[in-house]
Amino acid sequence: MAFADTVRYRYQTDLEAIKAAGLFKGERYIHSPQSSEIEVEFPIGSAVRKCINICANNYLGLSSHPEVIAAAHAGLDARGYGMSSVRFICGTQDIHRELENRLTAFLGTEDTLLFPSCMDANAGFFEACLNEQDVMIADRLVHASIVDGMRLCKATQDTYKHSDMGHLEEKLQEHQDKRSRMVITDGVFSMDGDTVKLADIVALAEKYNAMVFVDDSHATGFMGKTGRGTHEHCGVFGKIDVITTTLGKALGGASGGCVSGRRELVEMCRQRARPYLFSNAVAPVIVAGALKVLDLIGASTDRRDKLEWNARYWRGLLKEAGFDLKEGDTPIVPVMFYDAKLAQDFARDLFDEGVYAIGFFFPVVPKGQARIRTQLSAAHEKHHLDAAIEAFKKVGKKHGILGLGKKELMARAVA
Ligand SMILES: *Cc1c(COP(=O)(O)O)cnc(C)c1O
What we know:
There is one protein chain. The radius of gyration is 22 Å and the shape is globular. Helix 2 packs antiparallel against helix 12, helix 4 packs parallel to helix 12 (284-299) and helix 13 (302-321) packs parallel to helix 15. Strands 4-10-9-8-7-5-6 form a seven-stranded mixed sheet, sandwiched between helices. A four-stranded mixed sheet has the order 1-2-3-12. It is an alpha/beta fold. The protein has two domains: 37-63 and 301-414, Alpha-Beta Complex (Aspartate Aminotransferase, domain 1); 80-299, 3-Layer(aba) Sandwich (Aspartate Aminotransferase, domain 2), CATH 3.40.640.10. It is 44% helix and 16% strand. Pyridoxal-5'-phosphate binds at residues 117-119, 122, 143, 145, 186, 190, 215, 217-218, 246, 248, 257.
């Protein structure tokens, strides 16, 4: 027997240890489309309940937008369900190229290549474009998919302290002997909700002759006055060498990602990036939906404007109620608990009050940094947020944490 009882027992023991540490992640089944109000089965097997969703990446509220759904239906009818092929064999339709061109125009780059996901874009990019003569210098809080992509690449790896421009400058000086340098960062950091200092990074990159890579998954569609991303937000539109981003968040929320940037870098990905060469093309139905998303956000900034208002309003409500927040100016508003079990208990109690949010803890965030990451959407109306804050206050009172600062919360966490 290959899966011997001793082997099974080892895994069972590991899983029990995860549970005992309060770190076990269970699923909740959603019985409705993704939106600001969803129907959730939790615990599994219990009755489905309606609640306010405050933890989706559905920033622009387009995941279930009727026009996007209609466009996806039309795309399904016109181009079929799937390609049964990777892009370079027989998986590229005219609409794939159309979407790439539209993304290029939206992001203000030279060219774009679609990937099955942004995880895949990040997994494929570095190996395709850099080698042992180069160096990758990454912010220490970049997304896991960037970390994995860097691991697959033979270039020297280095990091700088999160958003520490002095440290980055030291690293750039240190690596002047390399053929080329690439500074690698997220645009908006997903766990803390803070924004990259992109103008400073671009200035340093110019001074020290480096390329700049930004993963704008948590920014594309809403950061910046017209929602182009952190490069627009930070006043360096058109100056970023490589942007990776996802269609799985603000841009409709289905799936798919891309590498967008300098023509030659994108072409190298088309030649060499393994997830592009060896994984299926984005389904036509998703391409058709994404084209409609770009129509909608190109025609009006109403959605990103509403999102901005919602985020500011929600942040104010939480602060006033006495929660400990991570500072920032994005629709990601982390409520800090530090203690993994408290974050989980709090999320469960919120659910009982009709608010759906999830506790985040190690390994998604560092140990002792547990939190509930709330995320705003243009699909939230003021009444959703007013109802949600009442639930937060009630549960906060129950746990006796309203008005406690970081120090007090951390002291309780070890107690
Ligand atoms: C969500 C996310 C990804 C992964 O995107 P997918 O398209 O879902 O694979 C990559 N990078 C960052 C920064 C993300 O937030």
